[in-house]
Amino acid sequence: MPAIQPVKLKSQVMQLAERFTQPAAFVRGLTELLDQYADHTHRSGLSGEPAPLVTTFNTPTPVMRQVGVMIKPLVGLDPPLTLELCDLLWAQPYLEHRLLAADLLGLLPLEYKSQVIARVENWTRIGTDERLIDAVLLHGLAHLRSQAPYEFTDLVQNWLSNPDTMIRQLGLRYLQSLAADPQFTNLPMIFRLLSPFLRDAPAALRPDILNILSLLIHRTPREAAYLLQQNLTTSESIDTAWLVRQVIAEFPYELQANLREASRASRPPSA
After folding, report:
1. Tens digit of pLDDT for each residue in 73-117?
2. Same domain, yes or no, for 109 and 91?
3. Number of domains in the chain
4. For the chain, what is the HEC assignment?
């Protein structure tokens, strides 16, 4: 991996940007650039991070940052061409190409929301690398989330109420991404959308539900405790009590007693 020379790198990325209107040539140029700066000595998993499911160049962050700085402003100039480029980038077997596809997808104008949503749903199917799922959900829907918050909320709600378990899981994964994002402050929306799953928690969705609860507990423990207490007192579902038992140790000690009491009170009387 050669040392990064900022002036040289900027010149290389400018040349890459000139190929933006030629998606195939752009992808070839990007691959060549990333390979030039690749860290072939890096071994995924040795430092504790999970190995990606797709090939990665392990390119230094400044390289991809410079690519983003040069390429992202071009998205609005030709949205249909950008969609074509996104599809071609995603079709490549490389982590960096797919991360860039997610970034560009999230910058498309709202008029292309149906095309954006279709790709988000398709790109996050089972078998997709976890890092890519998070990137697609957070970055791929960034414009919809910031420019059309009501439509964005409706989209997530539709995912969560879909009879297809995979689509509901996608909705829960998105709630998880939001809960993990310190810049997202509309936590009442997460509480509202999560509540039905606290009363009816299918086994296939329980890991995602627990992940969201854990994130909420660490961000706002009192509100998370109140959410669980409310569901315990208004539902006779054994699912709610089961979820509470899984996460109660994550709460501050002073909140655990009330949750235990509410959990005991919610148990159906013995026959």
Report:
1. 999 999 999 999 999 999 999 999 999 999 999 999 999 999 999
2. yes
3. 2
4. CCCCCHHHHHHHHHHHHCCCCCHHHHHHHHHHHHHHCCCCCCCCCCCCCCCCCCECCCCCHHHHHHHHHHHHHHHHHCHHHHHHHHHHHHCCCEHHHHHHHHHHHCCCCHHHHHHHHHHHHHHCCCCCCHHHHHHHHHHHCHHHHHHCHHHHHHHHHHHHCCCCHHHHHHHHHHHHHHHHCCCCCCHHHHHHHHHHHHHCCCHHHHHHHHHHHHHHHHHCHHHHHHHHHHHHHHCCCHHHHHHHHHHHHHCCHHHHHHHHHHHHHCCCCCC
